[in-house]
Amino acid sequence: MTEFVRLGCVMIMRDLKVVCLASLLLYMSMTAAYAVDLEKYPLGINLNGIADWSPEMPFLDLMKQARPWIPQRRNRPWGKGGMLILDEHGWVRTLEPRQWADLIFLTVKQPLPFTEFVVRYDGKGKIDYAGIARRIRRIRTGEDIVRVSQKINGHAILRLLKTNPEDPVRNIRIIPIKYLSEYEKGEVFNPLWLKYVQRFRAIRFMDWMGTNGSDQDAWSRRPRPDDYTWQWRGVPLEILVSLANRIHADPWFNMPHKANDDYIRNMALLVRTNLNKESTIYVEHSNEVWNWRFKQAHYAKEQAKSRWGREGNHWMQWHGMRTATLCQIWKKIFSGEDSRIQCVLGIHPGWRGLEKAALECPSWDKEGNGPCYRNGIDAIAITGYFTGCLDGNAGWKRPARYETIRKWFAEPDGGMKKAFEQALDGRHFGCERTLKGVADTISYFAAIAKSYGMSLLAYEGGQHVTGNGSKIQDDPAFIHFHLQFNRSEYMYTLTRKILELWKENGGGLFMYYNDIYPASKWGSWGAMDNLQDTGSPKIRAIRDFSKGRECWWDGC
Predict the structure, then answer these.
(1) Which of 101, 173, 252, 446 could tie 282 with a disulfide, CB 3.0–4.6 Å?
(2) CB atoms within 10 A of CB 278
(3) Phi, psi of 474 (to 5 degrees)
(4) Radius of gyration of the chain (CA)
């Protein structure tokens, strides 16, 4: 059972007022009081998406990071067990004859910080374990001690074999024995992870909220604290707010691209009611609406064509319009405190001039609304990524670049020095995404922001040296090269340099991407690879850049 269920909190929306039992307010005030007085980094951090394979492990209840149920049936292939009947929070209501449901709650990608767990559940039924998980002993009905092995790429599986439709198995909790007492006292978050993220000034929840491709439209479809896993629909807003309170960090929320105005109002109300009064709140419409890899870009195009009957840059005009309207809603809800709201417009950093469509949105202006930038938008945000064109895009138009890089692999250092030089200034072949090129981009958009009376933020940034879905994504030599470069001391220098360049060229808050991510062919996104990776060159660069440095932008 989640923290809010244990506290007995019920939330009701009535005439734009939130009615909540005193226990929720007590919990929110308690989380604020728990925050440690420490020196904050003048930076923010993106949080990795909730996943069973992620070594982030932010929650004490591992059920909250589990995959959705996998239906199984005797004599059928894996995952082909037919439909499962679930309740509104995702718990299995009933099983058909010869059917069961598997749930992967942990996939080992890095050595685990803990391997023994207490599993508790309510209701009547039968649970077993498979893969790298096994029951050590049963304490009583509804409570097991389970051990998970350290086998890399192994899956720890909870297996629901029987459930009573009159009293189904539900409220499954999977708690590390090491932290059982903290959990029983009401702690939601993993103390090892809290110790790490509490140093950052701001937390961006884009991946936690499942922003990319989200189908949330109405407030009734939002994630709930008592959902069986938060990998299902995203982490509930109540938990996002409690984390921000817990570590005294400024939250950065990403509004689902389909969310209606009622959703936005309710979200703003919940945040105003429960968030620390000292916190600045960053609000952004979706994520990378300019990026055609994401559903939100296509949705924006459809909406723009429906509204204005035109294409061209109108998908960005619609993005600007929607940003402006949600800004207006948030600032109205925070009337009297609206200076706390920093409304953010996400901009494509590689397409200079496209920002004008979203800032001025002339088609919306012609409807009598005025340009978007005059309707509550406070900042534009770009990425602060560098690649040196060492990534999968290196040979998109010029395949010969791949062969140039490949020749470096035979050098004594595996090509690390040449990769560093290339990332700095592109001295081995032309590239715009070197540190030199990124500095020019920052300067350009800082000037654009200033001309519109806004600030410039980085919603994501750091290195972007990976295969990017290209043909080298599966090339063992390139995979090794990318992983080696990301762990080299050169990456320490580059990471620290990009932060310095961001500050020197007019940037404000910089949100590093991301906190913890296991290095693989898919990328080395984490400032740390796992919770014990305090020697990572990236986190050392962040610490050293931040040491003794105050934040430098207006309104910090």
Answers:
(1) 252
(2) 9
(3) -110, 15
(4) 24
What CA–CA distance (Å, rounded) separates 317 from 306?
13
Amino acid at 284: E
Residue 126 in contact with residue 161, Cβ under 8 Å? yes
Band (393; pLDDT cuts 50, 70, 90): confident
- What CA–CA distance (Å, rounded) separates 244 from 32? 8
Cα(429)–Cα(439) distance, integer angstroms: 18
- Distance from CA of residue 135 to its chain's centroid? 33
Q: Which amino acid is at 452?
A: Y
Give me the residue label for tokens 């309707």.
Answer: 375
For 4, counting Cβ atoms within 10 Å of its Cβ (0-12 exposed, 13-18 middle, 19+ buried), the class is buried
d(CA 469, CA 523): 10
Q: What is the pLDDT confidence band of residue 51, given thresholds at 50, 70 and 90?
A: very high
> Do the beta carbons of residue 110 and residue 518 sit within 8 Å?
yes
Burial of 268 (0-12, 13-18, 19+ CB in 10 A): buried
Does the pTM surpass 0.70? The reply is yes
User: How many residues make up the chain in this entry?
Assistant: 556
Cβ pair 454, 517 in contact under 8 A:
no
State what percent of residues in the chain have pLDDT above 70.
93
Q: How confident is the model at residue 37 (pLDDT cuts 50, 70, 90)?
A: low
Q: How far is CA 509 from CA 170, 252, 504, in A?
A: 42, 11, 12
Query: Using an 8 Å Cβ cutoff, are 541 and 495 in contact?
Result: yes
Residue 344: φ, ψ to 5°: -115, 135
Task: State the Cα–Cα distance between residues 240 and 109, nearest whole angstrom.
Answer: 26
- Domains of the chain: residue spans and CATH: 41-54+191-389+431-470+491-546 (3.20.20.80), 60-184 (2.60.40)
22 φ, ψ (degrees, to nearest 5): -60, -25
Helices (H) and strands (E) in the chain, counts: 17, 20
